Protein backbone atom coordinates (compact mmCIF):
# COMPACT_ATOMS: atom_id res chain seq x y z
CA UNK A 1 0.00 0.00 0.00
CA UNK A 2 1.05 3.58 -0.67
CA UNK A 3 2.08 5.46 2.43
CA UNK A 4 0.00 8.50 3.32
CA UNK A 5 2.28 11.28 4.45
CA UNK A 6 1.54 13.55 7.38
CA UNK A 7 3.39 16.33 9.15
CA UNK A 8 4.19 13.86 11.95
CA UNK A 9 6.58 12.07 9.56
CA UNK A 10 8.97 15.05 9.64
CA UNK A 11 11.12 16.98 12.07
CA UNK A 12 10.75 20.61 11.04
CA UNK A 13 13.79 22.90 11.14
CA UNK A 14 14.55 26.49 10.22
CA UNK A 15 12.66 28.65 7.76
CA UNK A 16 14.48 28.66 4.41
CA UNK A 17 12.42 31.36 2.75
CA UNK A 18 9.01 32.65 1.77
CA UNK A 19 7.31 32.48 -1.61
CA UNK A 20 4.07 33.65 -3.18
CA UNK A 21 1.87 31.02 -1.56
CA UNK A 22 3.74 29.93 1.55
CA UNK A 23 7.01 29.28 3.34
CA UNK A 24 9.75 26.68 2.88
CA UNK A 25 11.30 24.89 5.85
CA UNK A 26 14.22 22.56 6.36
CA UNK A 27 12.75 19.17 7.26
CA UNK A 28 14.03 15.68 8.05
CA UNK A 29 11.99 12.56 7.37
CA UNK A 30 12.06 10.58 10.61
CA UNK A 31 12.44 7.06 9.22
CA UNK A 32 15.03 7.61 6.51
CA UNK A 33 16.73 10.63 8.17
CA UNK A 34 16.84 12.25 4.74
CA UNK A 35 16.82 16.05 4.67
CA UNK A 36 14.37 17.92 2.45
CA UNK A 37 12.82 21.29 1.85
CA UNK A 38 9.18 21.24 2.94
CA UNK A 39 7.03 23.84 1.22
CA UNK A 40 3.99 24.68 3.34
CA UNK A 41 1.09 26.45 1.63
CA UNK A 42 -2.19 27.63 3.10
CA UNK A 43 -5.29 26.28 1.36
CA UNK A 44 -6.68 29.83 1.46
CA UNK A 45 -4.43 30.58 -1.52
CA UNK A 46 -6.18 27.87 -3.55
CA UNK A 47 -9.82 28.66 -2.89
CA UNK A 48 -10.84 28.99 -6.55
CA UNK A 49 -10.92 26.31 -9.26
CA UNK A 50 -8.26 28.23 -11.21
CA UNK A 51 -5.76 28.42 -8.37
CA UNK A 52 -6.36 24.80 -7.38
CA UNK A 53 -5.78 23.74 -10.99
CA UNK A 54 -2.56 25.76 -11.01
CA UNK A 55 -1.31 23.96 -7.89
CA UNK A 56 -2.25 20.54 -9.27
CA UNK A 57 -0.46 21.37 -12.52
CA UNK A 58 2.70 22.46 -10.68
CA UNK A 59 2.80 19.23 -8.67
CA UNK A 60 2.05 17.02 -11.66
CA UNK A 61 4.71 18.65 -13.83
CA UNK A 62 7.54 18.92 -11.32
CA UNK A 63 7.04 15.43 -9.89
CA UNK A 64 7.77 13.94 -13.33
CA UNK A 65 10.92 15.97 -14.05
CA UNK A 66 14.13 14.11 -13.19
CA UNK A 67 17.18 16.05 -14.28
CA UNK A 68 20.35 16.98 -12.35
CA UNK A 69 19.69 20.67 -12.95
CA UNK A 70 16.05 20.69 -11.84
CA UNK A 71 14.88 20.65 -8.22
CA UNK A 72 13.10 17.35 -7.53
CA UNK A 73 9.59 17.17 -6.13
CA UNK A 74 9.33 13.87 -4.27
CA UNK A 75 5.76 14.01 -3.09
CA UNK A 76 3.04 16.00 -1.40
CA UNK A 77 0.33 15.71 1.23
CA UNK A 78 -2.30 17.92 2.82
CA UNK A 79 -4.43 18.40 5.90
CA UNK A 80 -7.48 20.54 6.66
CA UNK A 81 -5.63 23.85 6.38
CA UNK A 82 -2.44 23.35 4.36
CA UNK A 83 -0.78 21.67 1.39
CA UNK A 84 2.79 20.34 1.81
CA UNK A 85 5.30 19.72 -0.99
CA UNK A 86 8.37 17.55 -0.30
CA UNK A 87 11.24 19.05 -2.30
CA UNK A 88 14.92 18.38 -2.79
CA UNK A 89 16.98 20.44 -0.36
CA UNK A 90 19.28 22.80 -2.26
CA UNK A 91 21.57 24.35 0.37
CA UNK A 92 23.46 27.21 -1.26
CA UNK A 93 20.90 29.89 -2.00
CA UNK A 94 19.95 31.20 -5.41
CA UNK A 95 21.58 32.76 -8.43
CA UNK A 96 20.21 36.22 -7.64
CA UNK A 97 21.99 36.30 -4.28
CA UNK A 98 25.21 34.96 -5.78
CA UNK A 99 25.26 37.63 -8.49
CA UNK A 100 24.76 40.36 -5.89
CA UNK A 101 27.89 39.23 -4.05
CA UNK A 102 30.38 39.22 -6.93
CA UNK A 103 30.89 39.00 -10.68
CA UNK A 104 31.14 35.45 -11.96
CA UNK A 105 34.25 34.03 -13.53
CA UNK A 106 34.12 32.98 -17.17
CA UNK A 107 34.05 29.31 -16.17
CA UNK A 108 31.20 29.78 -13.72
CA UNK A 109 29.12 31.84 -16.16
CA UNK A 110 29.64 29.32 -18.95
CA UNK A 111 28.87 26.40 -16.63
CA UNK A 112 25.59 27.91 -15.49
CA UNK A 113 24.63 28.81 -19.07
CA UNK A 114 25.32 25.18 -19.98
CA UNK A 115 23.29 23.81 -17.08
CA UNK A 116 20.35 26.17 -17.51
CA UNK A 117 20.23 25.39 -21.23
CA UNK A 118 20.38 21.68 -20.48
CA UNK A 119 17.49 21.84 -18.01
CA UNK A 120 15.31 23.87 -20.38
CA UNK A 121 16.07 21.57 -23.29
CA UNK A 122 14.96 18.65 -21.10
CA UNK A 123 11.72 20.45 -20.21
CA UNK A 124 10.94 21.47 -23.76
CA UNK A 125 11.50 17.95 -25.05
CA UNK A 126 8.77 16.92 -22.58
CA UNK A 127 6.42 19.71 -23.65
CA UNK A 128 6.90 21.70 -20.44
CA UNK A 129 7.19 25.50 -20.46
CA UNK A 130 8.56 26.97 -17.21
CA UNK A 131 7.47 30.58 -17.93
CA UNK A 132 9.33 32.15 -15.00
CA UNK A 133 13.04 31.60 -15.59
CA UNK A 134 14.90 34.21 -13.53
CA UNK A 135 17.87 34.24 -11.10
CA UNK A 136 15.66 33.79 -8.02
CA UNK A 137 14.31 30.54 -9.49
CA UNK A 138 17.78 29.12 -10.14
CA UNK A 139 19.13 27.54 -6.95
CA UNK A 140 22.73 26.52 -6.19
CA UNK A 141 23.22 22.90 -5.17
CA UNK A 142 25.57 21.13 -2.79
CA UNK A 143 28.39 20.91 -5.33
CA UNK A 144 27.79 24.32 -6.88
CA UNK A 145 25.51 23.05 -9.62
CA UNK A 146 22.54 25.11 -10.78
CA UNK A 147 19.02 23.75 -10.27
CA UNK A 148 15.85 25.25 -11.74
CA UNK A 149 13.07 25.67 -9.15
CA UNK A 150 9.48 26.92 -8.80
CA UNK A 151 7.24 25.45 -11.46
CA UNK A 152 4.24 27.44 -10.24
CA UNK A 153 3.88 29.16 -13.62
CA UNK A 154 4.67 26.06 -15.68
CA UNK A 155 2.35 24.50 -18.23
CA UNK A 156 2.45 21.65 -20.69
CA UNK A 157 2.88 22.91 -24.24
CA UNK A 158 0.73 21.04 -26.72
CA UNK A 159 0.28 22.29 -30.29
CA UNK A 160 -2.11 25.00 -29.10
CA UNK A 161 -0.45 28.04 -27.54
CA UNK A 162 -1.41 29.83 -24.33
CA UNK A 163 -2.81 33.31 -23.75
CA UNK A 164 -1.86 34.69 -20.32
CA UNK A 165 0.80 36.88 -18.69
CA UNK A 166 3.14 35.00 -16.34
CA UNK A 167 6.66 35.45 -15.06
CA UNK A 168 9.01 38.14 -13.73
CA UNK A 169 9.00 41.42 -15.66
CA UNK A 170 12.73 41.97 -16.24
CA UNK A 171 13.04 38.50 -17.81
CA UNK A 172 9.74 38.38 -19.73
CA UNK A 173 9.77 37.78 -23.47
CA UNK A 174 8.04 40.50 -25.54
CA UNK A 175 5.14 38.21 -26.41
CA UNK A 176 4.58 37.58 -22.68
CA UNK A 177 3.98 41.27 -21.92
CA UNK A 178 0.70 41.35 -23.81
CA UNK A 179 -2.50 39.76 -22.53
CA UNK A 180 -3.76 38.84 -25.99
CA UNK A 181 -0.56 37.50 -27.54
CA UNK A 182 -0.02 33.75 -27.71
CA UNK A 183 3.24 32.22 -26.54
CA UNK A 184 4.98 28.86 -26.44
CA UNK A 185 8.22 27.29 -25.10
CA UNK A 186 10.28 29.97 -26.82
CA UNK A 187 9.40 32.43 -24.06
CA UNK A 188 11.81 30.39 -21.89
CA UNK A 189 14.53 30.91 -24.52
CA UNK A 190 14.27 34.68 -24.14
CA UNK A 191 14.46 34.38 -20.34
CA UNK A 192 17.52 32.13 -20.71
CA UNK A 193 19.15 34.88 -22.76
CA UNK A 194 18.32 37.54 -20.18
CA UNK A 195 19.75 35.46 -17.31
CA UNK A 196 22.86 34.52 -19.30
CA UNK A 197 23.40 38.18 -20.17
CA UNK A 198 23.20 39.14 -16.49
CA UNK A 199 25.64 36.43 -15.42
CA UNK A 200 28.23 37.63 -17.92
CA UNK A 201 27.80 41.42 -17.62
CA UNK A 202 26.60 41.80 -14.03
CA UNK A 203 23.39 43.65 -14.94
CA UNK A 204 20.02 42.83 -16.47
CA UNK A 205 19.57 43.64 -20.15
CA UNK A 206 16.25 45.51 -19.90
CA UNK A 207 15.39 46.47 -16.32
CA UNK A 208 15.36 50.20 -15.63
CA UNK A 209 13.76 52.41 -12.98
CA UNK A 210 10.13 52.24 -14.04
CA UNK A 211 8.00 49.30 -15.09
CA UNK A 212 6.85 51.15 -18.21
CA UNK A 213 10.42 51.86 -19.34
CA UNK A 214 11.33 48.22 -18.79
CA UNK A 215 8.35 47.10 -20.88
CA UNK A 216 9.25 49.59 -23.62
CA UNK A 217 12.85 48.34 -23.75
CA UNK A 218 11.72 44.71 -23.90
CA UNK A 219 9.29 45.46 -26.71
CA UNK A 220 11.95 47.38 -28.63
CA UNK A 221 14.62 44.81 -27.75
CA UNK A 222 16.96 47.60 -26.67
CA UNK A 223 20.06 46.02 -25.15
CA UNK A 224 23.12 47.96 -24.03
CA UNK A 225 25.95 45.49 -23.56
CA UNK A 226 28.41 47.86 -21.92
CA UNK A 227 32.04 46.83 -21.33
CA UNK A 228 32.84 43.11 -21.11
CA UNK A 229 36.43 42.28 -20.15
CA UNK A 230 36.54 38.82 -21.70
CA UNK A 231 36.68 39.17 -25.49
CA UNK A 232 35.31 35.67 -26.10
CA UNK A 233 32.42 36.29 -23.70
CA UNK A 234 31.64 39.52 -25.54
CA UNK A 235 31.64 37.59 -28.80
CA UNK A 236 29.26 35.04 -27.25
CA UNK A 237 26.93 37.86 -26.23
CA UNK A 238 26.90 39.22 -29.76
CA UNK A 239 26.67 35.83 -31.45
CA UNK A 240 24.21 33.93 -29.30
CA UNK A 241 22.43 36.19 -26.84
CA UNK A 242 21.60 39.29 -28.87
CA UNK A 243 22.32 39.62 -32.55
CA UNK A 244 21.06 43.20 -32.30
CA UNK A 245 24.66 44.10 -31.44
CA UNK A 246 25.60 43.09 -34.98
CA UNK A 247 24.55 45.95 -37.26
CA UNK A 248 21.04 45.76 -35.76
CA UNK A 249 20.36 42.52 -37.62
CA UNK A 250 16.90 41.84 -36.22
CA UNK A 251 16.50 38.54 -38.10
CA UNK A 252 19.70 36.90 -36.88
CA UNK A 253 18.82 33.80 -34.79
CA UNK A 254 19.69 34.32 -31.12
CA UNK A 255 18.19 34.10 -27.62
CA UNK A 256 17.10 37.72 -27.17
CA UNK A 257 15.34 37.86 -30.52
CA UNK A 258 12.09 39.81 -30.58
CA UNK A 259 10.73 37.56 -33.33
CA UNK A 260 10.27 34.35 -31.34
CA UNK A 261 10.34 32.25 -34.53
CA UNK A 262 13.99 33.32 -34.91
CA UNK A 263 15.17 32.29 -31.45
CA UNK A 264 17.63 29.43 -31.24
CA UNK A 265 16.72 26.32 -29.26
CA UNK A 266 18.02 25.63 -25.76
CA UNK A 267 19.88 22.54 -26.97
CA UNK A 268 21.89 24.66 -29.42
CA UNK A 269 23.47 26.84 -26.72
CA UNK A 270 25.85 24.21 -25.20
CA UNK A 271 27.40 23.71 -28.65
CA UNK A 272 28.55 27.32 -28.86
CA UNK A 273 32.38 27.48 -28.84
CA UNK A 274 32.55 29.77 -25.77
CA UNK A 275 30.24 27.52 -23.73
CA UNK A 276 31.88 24.30 -24.93
CA UNK A 277 35.36 25.59 -24.10
CA UNK A 278 34.62 27.01 -20.64
CA UNK A 279 31.71 25.07 -19.10
CA UNK A 280 32.44 22.46 -16.42
CA UNK A 281 30.16 19.79 -17.84
CA UNK A 282 30.87 17.22 -15.14
CA UNK A 283 28.87 19.32 -12.69
CA UNK A 284 25.71 18.49 -14.62
CA UNK A 285 26.20 14.87 -13.58
CA UNK A 286 26.45 15.67 -9.86
CA UNK A 287 23.66 14.42 -7.69
CA UNK A 288 23.41 15.32 -4.03
CA UNK A 289 23.04 12.42 -1.61
CA UNK A 290 19.42 13.33 -1.00
CA UNK A 291 18.73 12.70 -4.69
CA UNK A 292 18.99 8.96 -4.03
CA UNK A 293 15.56 8.99 -2.40
CA UNK A 294 14.09 5.96 -4.11
CA UNK A 295 17.21 3.80 -3.84
CA UNK A 296 17.81 4.60 -0.18
CA UNK A 297 14.47 3.89 1.34
CA UNK A 298 11.67 4.04 -1.23
CA UNK A 299 10.00 6.39 1.19
CA UNK A 300 6.49 7.29 0.24
CA UNK A 301 5.89 3.91 -1.40
CA UNK A 302 6.24 1.58 1.58
CA UNK A 303 5.00 1.39 5.16
Automatic annotation (TrEMBL):
Domain of life: Eukaryota
Pfam families on file: Pkinase
Residues that coordinate or bind ATP: 20, 39, 150
Enzyme class, spelled out: transferase
EC number(s) from the headed UniProt entry: 2.7.11.1
Catalytic activity annotation: L-seryl-[protein] + ATP = O-phospho-L-seryl-[protein] + ADP + H(+); L-threonyl-[protein] + ATP = O-phospho-L-threonyl-[protein] + ADP + H(+)
Keywords: ATP-binding, Kinase, Nucleotide-binding, Serine/threonine-protein kinase, Transferase
GO MF annotations in UniProt: ATP binding; protein serine/threonine kinase activity
Active site: 132
Domain called Protein kinase: residue spans: 10-275
Gene3D superfamilies according to UniProt: Phosphorylase Kinase, domain 1 (3.30.200.20), Transferase(Phosphotransferase) domain 1 (1.10.510.10)
Similarity comment: Belongs to the protein kinase superfamily. Ser/Thr protein kinase family. Aurora subfamily.
Protein name per the record: Aurora kinase
